[in-house]
Design a protein that fits this description.
single chain, 242 residues, six-stranded antiparallel beta sheet, four-stranded mixed beta sheet, 23% helix
Length: 242
C-alpha cells in the first residue's frame, strides 16, 4: 500500500489546500499563503495550557479557504446499511480504552454535520458505533466501538479503513480521540501528527488542514489521548493522565 504521508510530503505546498479563487475585491481582503504560513509557531509546554509542545496553526486553519468551487454533496451525510453494519476485510483494528464523560447517551444518526469544505468530517452513531466519514466523499475511514456506562463512555476498539491514517496505530487512535473531543464535545485540544512528519511549519500546517480543516488549531507529536476530558462543575476540563 502506498504510504499516504510520503505522498503528502511529495506535494508542493499542499495542492489540496488553496486560497479561494475569488475576484480581485475579495482577494484583496484575504491573507496570502505566505502570510498565513508565517503565523504558524511553536509554543513550548510551559507556555500553553495543554502541558505539551504544540504548533499553533489557528490563524492558518481559520483563515485558509478550501477549494470553494465544489460544495459538499448532501448525499455524503447519509450512511448505507452496509456502511453502518459491515467492515471491509482489510480493516486495521486496535484495542484502546478512551473514556469521556457521559451525560445523556448519544442519539442514533448524524452527530456532526460538515457544513463547508473547511469541515472535513461527518460523524454518525449507530448501535454503539461511532462512524467517521470524509465529508466530501462520504467514505468511512474510522469506526469506534464504545460502551456507555454512567458516568463515562468508553471507546474500546477502533477500526481504521485502508488509507485512513499515515502512521502507526497510535496515530489512528489519537485522530479518533481528537475528533471526539473537538467535534462532539467542542473542546479545544491538540491533534496528533505522524512521527515521521518533519517539524516544518508549512508541512505541519498543511497536513493539519488536509485532515482536520478549520478544527486543526494545535498540532503535536505528544500522546493526545493522555489529555483526558473530565467534568468540572457545570463544564468540562482537560486533565493530564500519566
Amino acid at each position: 500500500m502506498k504510504n499516504p504521508l510520503k505522498a503528502f510530503l511529495a506535494q508542493s505546498g499542499g495542492a489540496q489546500t488553496t486560497l479561494a479563487d475569488a475576484g480581485e475585491t475579495t482577494r484583496s481582503r484575504l491573507r496570502s499563503m505566505d502570510e498565513l504560513m508565517a503565523t504558524v509557531r511553536r509554543i513550548e509546554s510551559k507556555q500553553n495550557s495543554f502541558g505539551v509542545p504544540v504548533l499553533d496553526c489557528r490563524e492558518f486553519a481559520t483563515n485558509l479557504l478550501a477549494n470553494t468551487a465544489e460544495t459538499i454533496p448532501p448525499e455524503t451525510a447519509i450512511l448505507t446499511r452496509s456502511q453502518r453494519e459491515e467492515l471491509p476485510d482489510d480493516v486495521v483494528s486496535m484495542n484502546c480504552g478512551l473514556t469521556y464523560p457521559l451525560g445523556q447517551a448519544p442519539p442514533e444518526g448524524l452527530l456532526f454535520l460538515a457544513r463547508t469544505m473547511q469541515d472535513k468530517w461527518h460523524i454518525f452513531h449507530y448501535d454503539g458505533r461511532l462512524i467517521f466519514t470524509r465529508s466530501w466523499t462520504g467514505d468511512p475511514l474510522f469506526v469506534a466501538e464504545f460502551e456507555a456506562s454512567r458516568p463515562v463512555v468508553t471507546v474500546k476498539r477502533i477500526h481504521a479503513y485502508p488509507g485512513a491514517f499515515d502512521g502507526g496505530p497510535d496515530l489512528a487512535v489519537g485522530m479518533v480521540d481528537f475528533l471526539i473531543k473537538s467535534h462532539l464535545f467542542r473542546v479545544a485540544v491538540p491533534h496528533p501528527l505522524p512521527d515521521e512528519l518533519p517539524e516544518i511549519p508549512s508541512l505541519v500546517a498543511t497536513w493539519s488542514f488536509n485532515h482536520f480543516g478549520r478544527w486543526g488549531h494545535f498540532a503535536t507529536w505528544a500522546d493526545v489521548t493522555r489529555l483526558q476530558l473530565t467534568t468540572m462543575g457545570q463544564g468540562l476540563a482537560l486533565r493530564w493522565v500519566q
